[in-house]
Amino acid sequence: MRLIDCYDALLLDLDGTVWMGDEPIPHAVDALAGCTVPVMYVTNNASRGPEVVASKLTGMGFSATRDDVITSAMAAIEMCKREIPSGKVLVLGTESFVDLVREAGYEPVSSADEGPVAVLQGHNPDTGWRQLSEASLAIHKGARFFASNLDATLPQERGMMVGNGSMVEAVVHATGVRPKSAGKPGPEMFHDAARALGSHTPLAVGDRLNTDIAGGNAAGMDTLHVMTGVSGHHALVAARPEERPSLIASDLRDLYSPLESLRPSRQGDFSAMVKGHDVVLAGGRTDSTAMQALRTVLQVVWSYEGPTPTSIIPTSTPAEMVLEQWR
């Protein structure tokens, strides 16, 4: 049975899964055009409103509306509303975050002197000392603290920039108060997305183990890792139990591959065994793939009860060839 036929919804990460910067990931548009189940785009990026995300998706050729997007800003507001239904809220974030806070029935403010009942912090490249200090003052006065996400870094075309989590840490250091976070790897966004779709068997899809996959796992969902973004082959081998996906795909075309072929298992005539601190990879054929070798290795490493092996040792020509393709 095809993977897509085993689930009633897809909860898709964006950067590294659907797009990379301002370009769609190869094959992603066609793969999702043939999708027969509802799709929700679930992103930790709180700097864009859902309508902006949907517009970017449609501009690339994907089908999307505002209602098909959940951002960590939206999830943070929902988290706040469950505890504090109304009042003034100090927002550290973009204007789109402020607009969402207002739409939720709160009164956005920018000063601790206005008596906010909560502080909501999301990524904004313009956040600086003054805004961080207002948040600190408000929290010291008793305001509850919520963050859209705690990503330490933000992948950009030039490399890894400072993420919202790093900015949040400045407020934590000044107040001693840690925020509740709505973003990945927490489960809240995944639960919100499933509820919005009326889904009972969703599949969480992403490219980053410590956010997308860990978050889907925390939500009790099956998870699909795609090799088109941040976390590569070696990261999967070293993954902690809570970051290990149910299924591993090359890209979104594998939504139409047989489900069982995507599970960690012996494939491509490869064999693997742990020997000391290493994994020995043997066998294979001339047409065996890097992904078949990866799934073969993962089955062995993830079931091994000792320390995680530190290197992969090839003992055949096919094994050597595929390992050169790993990253």
Report on the structure:
- By secondary structure, the protein is of the alpha/beta class.
- The chain has three domains: 118 residues, Rossmann fold (3-Layer(aba) Sandwich); 109 residues, HAD superfamily/HAD-like (Rossmann fold), CATH 3.40.50; 61 residues, GMP Synthetase, Chain A, domain 3 (2-Layer Sandwich), CATH 3.30.300.
- Helix content is 33%, strand content 22%.
- The protein has eleven helices and 18 strands.
- The strands form five sheets. A six-stranded parallel beta sheet has the order 5-4-1-13-14-15, with helices on both faces. It has a five-stranded parallel beta sheet with strand order 7-6-8-9-12, sandwiched between helices.
- Strand 4, helix 2 and strand 5 form a beta-alpha-beta unit.
- Helix 5 packs across helix 6.
- The two termini are 30 Å apart.
Relevant terms:
327 residues, alpha/beta, Rossmann fold, GMP Synthetase, Chain A, domain 3, five-stranded parallel β-sheet, 33% helix
Number of helical elements: 11
Shape: globular
Unreliable spans are none
What is the H/E order? EEEHEHEHEHEEHEEEHEHEHEHEEEHEH
User: What is the CATH homologous superfamily assignment of the largest domain?
Assistant: HAD superfamily/HAD-like
The assigned structural class equals alpha/beta
Largest sheet features: 6 strands, parallel
| Helix proportion range | 25-40%
What's the N-to-C terminus distance? Answer: 30 Å
Order of strands side by side in the largest beta sheet?
A: 5-4-1-13-14-15
CATH class division of the largest domain: Alpha Beta
Oligomer: single chain
**How many beta-strand segments?**
18
Q: Can you tell me the CATH architecture of the largest domain?
A: 3-Layer(aba) Sandwich
**Mean pLDDT across every amino acid position:** 96
- Rg over CA atoms: 21 Å
- Strand % is 15-25%
**In CATH terms, what is the fold-level topology of the largest domain?**
Rossmann fold
Task: Give the count of structural domains.
Answer: 3
Keywords: Hydrolase
InterPro entries: HAD-like_sf (IPR036412), HAD-SF_hydro_IIA (IPR006357), HAD_sf (IPR023214)
GO molecular function, one term: phosphatase activity
Protein name: HAD hydrolase, family IIA
